[in-house]
Amino acid sequence: MKTTWNALKVLFSIATWIVTFLCWLLFGTWTLATLISDWRAARRTRADGHLRCLAGHIIEPSGVFECSGCGWVFRSDNYGLNCPNPECPKPQSNIVNCTTCGLSVRNPGRIGRP
Ligand SMILES: [Zn+2]
Ligand SMILES: [Zn+2]
Question: 61 and 97 in one domain?
């Protein structure tokens, strides 16, 4: 009787390990897939050296931008990705808005999801 119980315990711990391993495998695959798709999307939006919105406008890196986190309007040479407002709740933006039509593009320097 005791041997059966021990065998069951061993089986159970093996099953737990397998489930844990599968979860990590899924998580790892998902993370890798998002990293690769982000990298490819970033390459696509900058295919010819310019950052473009979906309508095809070239988004200039320097200009006047409005922070999506706090509404602060500022000059920037980096697509307005770093808000200078010291009280900004989101100083690192993950979107760039087209300066021509306003469509949003993902920050091409940002790889992976938070
Ligand atoms: Zn801000
Ligand atoms: Zn545009």
Answer: yes
Q: How far apart are CA 59 and CA 61, in angstroms?
A: 6
Tell how far the Cα of 107 is from the centroid of ligand 2, in angstroms: 15
Q: What's residue 51's pLDDT?
A: 85
CB 72 within 8 A of CB 88: yes
Give the distance (Å) from ligand 1 centre to CA of residue 112: 22
Task: Give pLDDT, residue 38.
Answer: 80
66 with 41, same domain? no
Residues of the chain with pLDDT under 70: 1, 47, 112-114
Write down the pTM of the prediction.
Answer: 0.56
Same domain, 27 and 71: no
- Could you count the other beta carbons within 10 Å of the beta carbon of residue 114? 5
Residues with CB under 5 Å of ion ligand 2 are 53, 55, 57, 98, 100-101, 103
Residue 6 lies in a domain: yes
State the distance from the centre of ligand 2 to the C-alpha of 31, rounded, in angstroms: 30
Task: Judge if 16 and 60 occupy the same domain.
Answer: no
